[in-house]
Write a structure and sequence with these properties.
By secondary structure, the chain is of the alpha/beta class. Helices cover 51% and strands 14% of the residues. The chain has one domain: Rossmann fold (3-Layer(aba) Sandwich). The strands form 2 sheets. A 5-stranded parallel β-sheet has the order 2-3-1-4-7, with helices on both faces. The chain is globular and about 45 Å long.
Amino acid sequence: MGLNVVMMGPPGAGKGTQAERLARERDLLKISTGDILRDAFKEQTPAALVAKAKMDRGELIDDETMIAIVRDRLMRPDAGRGVVLDGFPRTVTQAEALDRILGERDNGPLVVIDVVVPEQELVRRLAGRRICSNCGTTAAPGDMEANCARCGGVMMQRADDNQDVVLERLKVYQQATRPVLEYYRNRPTFRVVNGSQAPDRVAHELNTLIDDAASVAVPLKTASEGSL
């Protein structure tokens, strides 16, 4: 049976790193919002053309367009074993649509993981975070190499990773994602992991929580029908 995982957590929580590791270890397709948009833009799908036009005008991509892009990606054969989603869903409307899409595929349960880290620790992490100027890979904590291990690009600090901006980003995240967390919170497959631990410890706990959640999962068709 397949497995589908939604990774949630504030900037700096390490959910992207854990999502990458989880997908690799469980042979799942890892999809981030950035990845899926870049691929869609290259392929020039109808939904991607709409999204590109909106972004070129400085507008946010609406739920309907984003859902169409995600649906197209999730219905492809390489997503058959399951996926790890990072950055989607961002709204309750998107979460409801994801239930319907996965219910149509019927390829395993949906487990939702909220990676929780205290605000003070998030500020510390983000203020010292460095990313690759070429591919966007984030350096591991304590990694001070000048060049990206993935592509060789220059590692640099993001301009918006100063304390005031970080605090505002965290505030915006909490306000934007609270409704989505509340949508999922009462499900038997919702789990919280302590992201302030060492990465290996987080990964171990994450796998234990996922196995536990998957063992009590209800069919996604039932879940999606109940959320409509």
